[in-house]
Every structure is written in C-alpha cells, then in structure tokens.
Amino acid sequence: MSEMYQNPGPGNYAHAQGRVFEAEAQINAAQHGRGNIIREPDKPYRFRRGVLIALLTIPIAAILAAVFGLNSPTAGAATSPFAILIAFDLFARGSGRSPVTGRGFAAATGIGIVTMIIAAAISYPYSLFLTYLYDGGTGGILGSGFARFFTTWIDANVTLILVTIAVVAVISVVIVWRKARAARAHTIAEQ
Q1: Which of 120, 48, 49 is nearest to 84 (CA)?
Q2: Nearest to residue 128, comparing CAs of 165, 166, 77?
Q3: What distance in Å separates the CA atoms of residue 98 and residue 127, rounded to the nearest whole number?
Q4: Could you tell me how far CA 45 lies from the centroid of its own chain?
Q5: Using one digit for the tens of pLDDT, what is the confidence trace for 8-62?
C-alpha cells in the first residue's frame, strides 16, 4: 500500500523534477521575448510611506496655486492639475515603485484629485483678496468688504470660472487616463 502512495513533499524526485522543468520554461520564455517572468523590483514596496510622502502634494500644490495666483485667479486654478502629476511622482518615490495597479494607483489618483480641488478652491479667494487689497480695500479675508468684492467678481465672471473648471477637469481626466494607460502597458509588458 505504501508503494502506491507518492509523497508530494519537497524531497520527492517528481516534485523536484517539475521545478526544474518550470524554471527551464521560464528561462526559455524570457530569452525569446515572450517573458512571463515579472522582474524582481530593486526596492521593497512601501505603500504607507508612499501615501505619506504623496501627502506632501497638498502644500506643494497650495504653493503653486498661490504663486501663480499672484497673476490672476485663473492662472492659479489652471496649475491645479499638476497636483495629480506631483502625487504620482511623490508616491513612486516614497513607495519604491511606480503606482501602476490597485491601491497604489487609487491612492495617488485620490490624493492628486483632492489636492487639485483644494488648490483650485484656494486660488480664487487668495488672488481676489490680493486684488482687493491692491485696490485699497481694508479688512481681512473674512470681512464684509471683501465678501462684497468677492461676490461681485464671481457674479461678473461666472463664464470665466466655468471655463476654467471645465479646462482643469479635462486636463486632469487626460492626465489620469494617460497614467492609467501607462500603468496598463507596464503591467501587460511584464506578463
């Protein structure tokens, strides 16, 4: 009875021979360019570290919106799609790998989009407050004088705001779409 039972353990000759054939098949596939061997990454994957460093996108995007917002509120809002690119790059540097699939891609995209919205929302009041002060306005950003100035400007420039929002949305969708295509091409090439 014991002769009919074959031990599937690592000491079994058939098991070891199967591993040899599998390794030879992978080597042959890699040599012929069909490579179904995924490269071993240089660094370990650190998801939490990538997310933590990607959160630096928030102050960087706020600074970009503030600097470009000195020119006009539209210029500050137009720089906000760069937040997505910055989030992807910072996530890749922090985690040790490019965010190509799964939670890494979702985290980088989410941080970038939320930061983009925050930067665009900061840009208009900041730039208009500076304009209000240059025009001789007094009081703070929460004062009634600035509130009247802000609402007057918003009412007069609704089309400009909507066009800026539409352009920023299209640019950000294109950026995320290109990142997704690059991620898909990256994963398909490694399969």
Answers
A1: 120
A2: 77
A3: 35
A4: 16
A5: 555 554 444 555 556 666 666 666 555 545 555 566 778 888 889 989 988 988 8
The enclosing H or E element of 107 equals helix 102-134
Kindly state the tokens that stand for 124: 């208009």
Provide the token pair at 150: 């802000």
Cα→Cα distances 77→19, 61, 126, 146, 159, Å: 57, 10, 11, 20, 14
Mean pLDDT of 83-111: 83
- Identify the helix (H) or strand (E) that includes residue 35: none
Please state which of the ranges 33-47, 58-72, 143-157, 164-178 shows the lowest mean pLDDT.
Answer: 33-47
Is the CB of residue 131 less than 8 Å from the CB of residue 123?
A: no
pLDDT for res 104: 82
Residue 163 has, within 13 A of its CA and on its CB side, a CA count of 7
Residue with tokens 């890494």: 104
Which whole number is the average pLDDT over 154-178?
87
Separation between Cα atoms, residue 36 and residue 28, nearest integer Å: 10
| 84, 94, 117 from 52: Cα distances, Å | 15, 8, 19
Q: Which residues contact 64 (CB under 8 A, 6 or more apart)?
A: 76, 79, 80, 82, 83, 119
The DSSP 8-state label assigned to residue 135 in this structure reads T
Q: C-alpha 112: how far from its chain's center?
A: 5
